[in-house]
Structure formats: C-alpha cells, structure tokens
Design a protein that fits this description.
Layout (H helix, E strand, L loop, with lengths): L2 E8 H7 L3 H7 L2 H9 L3 H19 L11 E5 L5 E5 L1 H7 L4 E7 L3 E8 L1
Antiparallel strand pairs: 1-5, 2-3, 4-5
Helix pairs in contact: 1-4, 3-4
Length: about 120
C-alpha cells in the first residue's frame, strides 16, 4: 500500500527556534546538526528537515506516537538529494519498504513530501 505525507513550515519560525541550543539537541540528530553547521542558510535547511520529519510521521499515520525526532534523520546523499535515515524503531513502524522524500522551499516556507511503499 502507498502511504503519503506532506508538511509545510514557516522558515522564520524555525530561524527563531534555532537560537535555542536545547531545541537543536532535541529535534535534530547529530548528523543533521553537522549539516546545518555547514550551510550558508541553515534556517532554510532546518525548516526542510523539520517538514520532512513531520511528513514522514504523517505518512506513517501515527504522528509521533512510538517515534521521536531523534529516530528520523534527514541527510543528503552524495548528489545532495535528501534521504531519510531511520532508527530501528522507526524502520519497524515504516514496515521496511521503500521511502522517498522531496524537500523544497521559497523565501518564507519549506515543504516536504514523503512517499512510502
């Protein structure tokens, strides 16, 4: 069965949240924090990551019940395409099928779409 999730995030809201180190540590994995540190515009990247995590749990159909922000890591492959890296718990909830994510943003908003088979 095909499962889809989509989320849209206001970049400015995430930009303000990034000023709080506790927010960063709670909501972003170590790999994501390293990615953000390497970006010229980290708020845009962070908003895309946030939207992708929200889209993933919407595709699961459970929300964040049984899975947390640290169970979902949104990284980049060698060509820069976003990919989801899941903890064993999140992978089990997802059913082990293929997962694809797409992220885009404009000046004020980021959007992510997740498809799971």
């Amino acid at each position: 069965m095909l499962h889809c999730g989509v989320d849209i995030v206001e970049i400015e809201r995430v930009r303000r949240c990034l000023e709080n180190p506790r927010f960063l540590a709670r909501c972003f994995t170590e790999g994501e924090r390293a990615l953000l540190a390497s970006r010229r515009h980290p708020a845009e990247t962070a908003a895309g990551i946030w939207a992708a995590k929200e889209a993933f749990v919407k595709a699961l159909g459970t929300g964040f019940r049984g899975v947390g922000f640290q169970d979902i890591s949104v990284l980049r492959d060698r060509r820069g395409k976003p990919v989801l890296s899941l903890s064993p718990r999140a992978q089990a909830l997802a059913g082990g099928g293929a997962i694809d994510v797409s992220i885009s943003h404009d000046r004020t908003q980021a959007v992510a779409f997740v498809v799971m088979l």
